[in-house]
Amino acid sequence: MNPLLDQFLTEGRDVLQSIGERLLQLEDSPNDAALMDELFRLVHTLKGNSGLFDLPEMTRVLHAAEDLMDAARDGRVPFDRALADRLLEAMDFVATLIDEIAEAPDDTPPSTARHAGDAVRLGEALRSLLQDDSPPLDADGTQEIPQDAPPALYRTDAGPDLSALPEQTRQDLRQRLDAGESLCWLGYEPEEECFFKGEDPFHQMLQLGAPLWHRLEAREDWPALAELDAYRCVLRFEAIVSASPERLAEHFRYVPDQVDILPLSALMQTDTPQASATAIGPEAAWSFDRVLAAQREILALSDTPPWLDGRLRAVAASLSAAFISVDRAIEVETLEPALASALAARSPAPLLAWLDARQPPTEIGEAADIDAGAPTDSSGAKAPEAEAVRFGRRAEDHLTNPRTLKVDQAKIDRLMNLIGEMVVAKNALPYLAGRAEDVFGVRELAREIKTQYAVINRIAEEMQDAIMQVRMMPVSFVFQRFPRLVRDIAHKLGKEVRLVMEGESTEADKNIIEALADPLVHIVRNSLDHGLEMPEERRAAGKPSEGRLNISARQESDRVLIEIADDGRGIDPNRIRRKAYERGLIDETALERLSDQEAINLVFAAGFSTAEQVTDLSGRGVGMDVVRNAIARVNGAIDLRSQLGQGTSLRLSLPLSMAVTNVMIIESAKQRFGVPMDSVAETVRVARHDIRTIKHRRTTVLRGRLVPLLSLNELLALNAEQIPNDDDEFAVLVVRVDQEYLGIIVDDCRETIDIILKPLAGFLGGLNGYAGSALLGDGSVLLVFNPRELL
Amino acid sequence: MALEFKKTTVIASDLLGVEDAEILLEWLIKHPRGRINLSACTHLHAANLQVLMAAKPKVSAWPRDGVLADWLRAALTP
């Protein structure tokens, strides 16, 4: 299901719950203005949200509820029990719709059009309260005479005048009805202001295809041309079309209060010669159809239970009662033989045939709505709809089990911390196994401990995975505010910018996503302010005047990469050098020595800003260093690349989750170190004679690729040679840095373990080259490299 | 332009939008005996329909589209 709709459903239920609570509280203290405001706000919110989706029925009811609440809030309508009842009923209706949508299997919300009639009725019921109680105040002229909610499926006040039909059409219609076609009479009176709402009633009618009969007239006499208001709609369309009432209701679902739809079967039946003369109301006809549909459904059941006889008799009784109720008792005479043959054959077929002969199957309503199992008695046949349908969902009704849980984040955090500790604690088991073997000399026990460890390890990993899934959030959480931000800033600066976003659905841990929000906004502002040029400048440089800002997110193994790239002027390394020198960030020798890339990286230095003047956008000196620190705090890395005149690209690499890090333990100069697994490409053994020295740099060929080699002891300035194994082979850790591969010679590679990485703090915090430290199962401290910074 | 005005006839082509109703009405007021040619018209907005129903100009050619022509005939011929 699409996430927006999902969220709406979840929130919708919450809001409905709150509305229910407020309503009940208000009944106790009807004069509580704050409570009233709160209630209005809730209804208003829900209405607004429902407008995002194609749910006109829900919006209609909520709109009426909102109007009523507004009136109640202003004191125009007293808040009383009747009002609360109506509102509760409306909310029950909304809840029904929400449940229905939630149960839909596919992505798109199902059409709720068949509730259109209910929606109209509820809306009118709500509005009638509004009018009943405040007739004099309603001066602005929404002035329909308050009427009790008519118990109709559709509006029925304007009945069809079939006498206008030419005899030939009448014949044709009758034939079609007999052939089982579903025909409807349709009356459509568009409201006067409909043109201003962008509606075209004529188009709407034409969409229905060729009608069997149609009539178009004005609701009032045409004035003189000079006085004609072409934009006040006074048309009235009538047509007889070959379509089911449901389809028509769906077609006109946005204007259900302006159309009348009547299945023609009922209307025509009344003037067919075989039926007695009494015309039945459309409402009764509708009920009659529903009863028949229900019976048909029972007959269509294919099983043959022992109580089949009873069932057949019940159906026959219902049918007979239904036909008698619409004054067609004469037809019931043939029912008895049909029942007899059905009982004899133990099959519902004869009854079904009888029913089909009387009333061809039409798609009337949702037969499932009727309690299909129970035979309907004659009173039920007449009017189950005689009173307004109530969407009662009181306490005794079944509760839909919510599919989502709202949990306080602190609880999740606690769970995550516990799982983290569990992961570390299990690391103690291999040491224990080692001690059992080495110190106490019981190899059996050691083996058993290791087996147990494997089991615990698997469970711990799954737990870790599960808790990570819980905490995952899509980056769109942060990305979604960029379109507006970019638009506003670009507007302010007079620049033309096109924002392209990719990979919004990439997910990462909630903490990571949240930590990302501010730095990203800052980076985007920087790009807009410093990176992209003014349109004239861009045209002069031969670029399209519209600048391009690309924000993309993607997952790469267990990191999330976020790239913000613009095609602006890029960063001039010389300007950076000069500025840095002026601000005393570097000295003269450094000025000469710095490579372009190093110079560009100076923008991350504290207190660095190139902007000549402080704007409200950027240039206050709290700049990229803050960004870098924020990213580093969540174990992320930031990489800035810029090409003068071509643009700048910033790449953030963040861990998917900050909870647990998988590291490989290596040994060098009798010390143990950790290397994050995500930067390790492979570990190989390279024989001494395979190492070539090219220009004082050691290299080797691995899988047809030249890989430079560095010794870890040299990198760490440890005064020791790397130790090869007995075959004179070196252990080489191949790491990947910026898509390039590099071999680090170590003494030995050991196992990989999961640790909780703690960043170095205090005085050690300034040491780059280390990502942090961790506690091992045997209580010792492991230092973990950051290969990117070590080199 | 969906409306083309000749001396005594207005020729409607393609789709008559909601804005065209006002122009059409104005022209019909000025030319009380004006005719309308709808042969190339594929659809007209209901506002235009109202204008035509109120002004009842002579229709020199009906739309080629059968359904549309049917509706218009029913509305415009007494």
From TrEMBL, chain A:
Keywords: Kinase, Phosphoprotein, Transferase, Two-component regulatory system. Gene3D superfamilies: CheA-289, Domain 4 (2.40.50.180), Histidine kinase CheA-like, homodimeric domain (1.10.287.560), Histidine kinase-like ATPase, C-terminal domain (3.30.565.10), HPT domain (1.20.120.160). The modification Phosphohistidine is found at H44. The keyword Phosphoprotein applies. It is an enzyme of class 2 (transferase). Pfam families: CheW, H-kinase_dim, HATPase_c, Hpt. GO terms for molecular function: phosphorelay sensor kinase activity. Its EC number is 2.7.13.3. Residues 456-658 form the Histidine kinase domain. Transmembrane segments: none annotated. Residues 660-791 form the CheW-like domain. Signal peptide: none annotated. One of its GO terms (biological process) is chemotaxis. InterPro entries: Bact_Chemotaxis_CheA (IPR051315), CheA-like_dim (IPR004105), CheA-like_homodim_sf (IPR037006), CheW-like_dom_sf (IPR036061), CheW-lke_dom (IPR002545), HATPase_C_sf (IPR036890), HATPase_dom (IPR003594), His_kinase_dom (IPR005467). It catalyses: ATP + protein L-histidine = ADP + protein N-phospho-L-histidine. Residues 1-101 form the HPt domain. GO terms for cellular component: cytoplasm. It comes from the Bacteria. The keyword Kinase applies. Involved in the transmission of sensory signals from the chemoreceptors to the flagellar motors. CheA is autophosphorylated; it can transfer its phosphate group to either CheB or CheY. This is Chemotaxis protein CheA.
UniProtKB/TrEMBL annotation, chain B:
The lineage of its organism: Bacteria, Pseudomonadati, Pseudomonadota, Gammaproteobacteria, Chromatiales. This is Uncharacterized protein. It comes from Thiorhodococcus drewsii AZ1. It comes from the Bacteria.
